[in-house]
Amino acid sequence: MIARILVAVLLTGSALAQGVVHYTTTNANVKYLFATAEPVLHLKSGDILDTNTLDCFGNGLKKPGDTLSMAKGDNPLAGPFFVEGAEPGDTLAVKILDLQVDGDMGVGAFSPGFGSINSSHYTPMLGGELPERVWFYPIDHGANAATFNSALSDNYTTGTGALVDADMNQASTRLQALQTQQQLGVQSLSIANQSSQLILKLFQ
Hints:
Elements: E1 3-11, E2 20-22, E3 41-43, E4 48-53, E5 81-83, E6 92-101, E7 105-110, E8 133-140, E9 145-146, H1 150-202
């Protein structure tokens, strides 16, 4: 899924430039880091930036059958953009004027070591690794949204509901069993304590 963005940049307390600056993001100029990098473009306060972004896989996955090995990288970043006159401590206001999805497919995926339901260095999980899987979601440009297959969505909803109900019933049964076990344990200790006191009375 690719997005085209139109934003206005304003440094508070400065004059408006009102220029339109165009920048095209490609796999050749994106960044794959969260740190300082040389600016790709200089803007003046009040300029309007017309640019695009790449999806989380660098637009490398486009159709069913594509695999994660075809991804250009993870979460490519457009920019950075330098605002002239901005200094540490200044307030920079960015207003999104327009945002459009210009791709035809949305994409989601997981693989061993990657994805919210798979174990990774950051989120260990119980159980084995899930094998790689990639989903594609057609873009409804009229609604500006990705759409699920209705049959898949219905099956998912039904299956998830059944799974949640089953887990809740099982959890409730376990909780009752633990509570009963705790009560029996307390009663056993009480009986044992009373028995020891009776035995002590025999020797008094």
